[in-house]
Amino acid sequence: MLEQKIRERRQTYEEFAEAAVGRGAVLAGREWRRWVRVHDYREAAEQSEKLADKFIEIRALTLFRWKATGLVLVGLLVVLAVAYLVYGPVAM
What we know:
The chain crosses the membrane at residues 68-87. This is DNA segregation ATPase FtsK/SpoIIIE, S-DNA-T family. It comes from Amycolatopsis arida. 88% of the residues lie in helices and 0% in strands. It is an all-alpha fold. The chain folds into two domains: 1-37; 50-91.
């Protein structure tokens, strides 16, 4: 009886944790997209009516942020590959 209650409660916690991870991933994805799109910088240029003057700067900043994203992803893949080679499939 007690073991069944413990299993049910543990399953509820696991479902809650999975949902929280999912919500966090969606939020992180939205924030990353907003960051890459240079949304704040573009809005400021539009409000000051100098969007045409700032186009090259906005484009350069966008490309830099895409490059930074690519480097982070490559670094993550390298870390995962090293972990897999050192610890095997248990680390994944």
